[in-house]
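Exercise 7. Given the encoded structure of a 300-residue chain, write a plausible sequence.
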């Protein structure tokens, strides 16, 4: 039995509305739909999973991000290679610039604590809402779009001295550097690693069998027109020659700390910094983490 794309999209709309009630927990109704589709057809389950996998959830901007949002110069920047516009935030004014890249279902102001720190250090902080995130165009997104945005922002706003990427933003940052984004140093915070591992983990969280993970990976390959595993952080790390700090928390429930160790071993100038008790997102606001990033960027 083959379910139409329209029916799958209906399920997506239904589950997306529910998923926003609890921020980081997959709702039971989503799990029921996924299991139902798997019983009918693993391919249908894979299509449903793919639509979930590529559609970020937009969360309301928390009050703590208000200062950066309201005090930034905001612009909608056209990304010709995507045919979309993205929201760009310019925070401060300086010849020395740092680019901040949020993760999946995040926002350009999510790294506000890091931005505030480097603003006081005299750097101009530039960030953006990825496609289908925040105030940017689009309903679906993927890492290749983040990479293209980084490269276009570099052309329009660069050069940049440093860059910090969180989660998927860290993976996109490594790939952008691999493709020619020229910076002195980079920091990855809670970065994912293997695309194959990410799809497998995603399917596991939906309570589905590994067969569906294999099919999801094939859907992603088809969308990108190539083997998506080539976008993995460890693959990009092999070709990145600048110093890179890899920061991760032992208690990260979204991305396993093993990813940090897997990435750093492929970097020619990599350093790892492991924290405890901060998880996947609070790590962005931790003063010791921000100081560590600053020290790494400042040292010769």
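Solution.
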């Amino acid at each position: 039995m083959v379910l139409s794309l329209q029916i799958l999209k209906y399920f997506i709309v239904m589950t997306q509305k529910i998923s926003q009630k609890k921020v980081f927990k997959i709702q039971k109704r989503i799990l029921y739909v996924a299991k139902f589709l798997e019983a009918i057809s693993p391919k249908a389950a894979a299509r449903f999973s793919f639509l979930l996998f590529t559609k970020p959830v937009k969360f309301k901007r928390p009050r703590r991000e208000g200062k950066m949002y309201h005090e930034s110069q905001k612009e909608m920047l056209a990304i010709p290679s995507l045919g979309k516009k993205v929201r760009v935030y310019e925070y401060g004014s300086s010849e020395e610039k740092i680019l901040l890249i949020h993760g999946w279902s995040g926002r350009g102001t999510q790294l506000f604590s890091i931005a505030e720190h480097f603003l006081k250090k005299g750097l101009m902080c530039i960030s953006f809402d990825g496609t289908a995130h925040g105030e940017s165009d689009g309903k679906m997104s993927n890492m290749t779009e983040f990479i293209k945005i980084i490269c276009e922002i570099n052309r329009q706003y660069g050069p940049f001295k440093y860059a910090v990427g969180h989660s998927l933003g860290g993976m996109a940052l490594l790939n952008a550097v691999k493709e020619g984004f020229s910076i002195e140093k980079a920091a990855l915070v809670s970065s994912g690693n293997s695309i194959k591992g990410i799809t497998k983990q995603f399917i596991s969280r939906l309570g589905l069998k590994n067969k569906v993970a294999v099919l999801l990976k094939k859907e992603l390959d088809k969308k990108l027109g190539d083997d998506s595993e080539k976008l993995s952080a460890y693959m990009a790390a092999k070709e990145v020659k600048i110093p890179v700090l890899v920061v991760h928390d032992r208690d990260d429930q979204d991305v396993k700390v093993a990813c940090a160790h897997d990435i750093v071993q492929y970097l020619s100038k990599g350093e790892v910094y492991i924290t405890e008790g901060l998880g996947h997102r609070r790590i962005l606001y931790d003063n010791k983490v921000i100081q560590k990033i600053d020290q790494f960027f400042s040292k010769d």
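Remark. The beta strands are 73-79, 84-91, 97-101, 124-128, 162-166, 185-189, 244-249, 270-275. Students should compare their own answers with the one above.
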